[in-house]
Q: What sequence folds into this?
């Protein structure tokens, strides 16, 4: 008898069914609210981001704060480890000179300055990971926000795309009110913006948000921008380049997309920018010697700042 191997095929049909059902819920919620689409879409965006992604962002920011407070401890380990390894290597070499030599050289006998730096660096990162784990601020937890925010953005974009009829060429909007509940010259939100005001606004907000995050990365020394004699880019430098390219692509797509969909993208990027500004104000990460927002309220009377931020 021949054994037949059962093949499993991945299907996105269940996911599309859920998203199509979500489209129905959005349409029903809009009808129940009585708010025109031009106001309903930003309100829906703020509501979703506030209830789904904002709590995760706050949790992640507190983890960043805890990590930054622990980094000086981890960095202080490096010179101690180097001295310890150098002392062990020197001690082993002294034994060799006294005649306690063996035919096979031990690892400590072969320690050089380069090896000491590599071993000390590996040990420091190992202890740093343990330190973060003991304080419940592991780096993998910082992937939770993009793991939730990106699928949410894609899902809502798909649902609005279906509502506006942009999913197929020549199709009409599922909700006819999209053609009448616009604002200003954009009375039909199922059509693209003929004057490109929305795509330009989207590009400005997206770029401002990205540059703010890039400046944060510079302060945390995650990039090589502003560092002299640094020819080797970091992973974050690559992310910066890809992000700027994706913003240009998003703007180009927005010139052809329905105004309702672009309005959601603008609302989402505006929320992200405001969220980052407020978090840097009320949940700041310390970037010694830099600080994003300088407040004189915490200074005593007559105090003079040594560093101008």
A:
């Amino acid at each position: 008898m021949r054994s037949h191997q059962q093949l499993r095929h991945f299907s996105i049909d269940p996911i599309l069914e859920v998203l199509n059902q979500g489209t129905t819920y959005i349409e029903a919620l809009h009808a129940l609210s009585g708010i025109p689409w031009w106001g309903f879409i930003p309100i829906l965006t703020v509501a979703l981001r506030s209830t789904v992604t904002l709590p995760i962002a706050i949790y992640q920011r507190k983890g960043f704060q805890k990590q930054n407070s622990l980094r000086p401890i981890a960095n202080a380990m490096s010179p101690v480890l180097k001295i310890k390894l150098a002392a062990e290597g020197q001690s082993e070499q002294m034994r060799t000179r006294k005649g306690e030599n063996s035919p096979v050289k031990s690892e400590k006998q072969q320690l050089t300055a380069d090896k000491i730096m590599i071993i000390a660096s590996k040990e420091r990162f190992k202890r740093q990971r343990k330190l973060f784990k003991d304080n419940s601020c592991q780096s993998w937890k910082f992937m939770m926000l993009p793991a939730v925010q990106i699928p949410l953005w894609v899902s809502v974009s798909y649902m609005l795309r279906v509502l506006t009829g942009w999913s197929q060429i020549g199709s009409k909007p599922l909700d006819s009110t999209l053609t009448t509940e616009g604002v200003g010259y954009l009375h039909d939100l199922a059509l693209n913006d003929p004057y490109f005001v929305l795509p330009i606004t989207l590009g400005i907000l997206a770029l401002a948000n990205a540059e703010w995050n890039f400046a944060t990365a510079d302060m945390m020394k995650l990039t090589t921008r502003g560092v002299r004699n640094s020819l080797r880019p970091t992973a974050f430098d690559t992310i910066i380049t890809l992000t700027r390219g994706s913003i240009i692509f998003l703007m180009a797509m927005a010139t052809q997309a329905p105004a309702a969909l672009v309005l959601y993208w603008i609302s989402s990027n505006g929320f992200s920018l405001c969220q980052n500004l407020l978090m840097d104000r009320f949940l700041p990460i310390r970037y010694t010697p830099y600080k994003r927002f300088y407040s004189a309220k915490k200074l005593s009377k007559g105090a003079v700042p040594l560093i101008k931020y």
Q: What stands out?
A: Residues 14-66+141-290 form one domain.
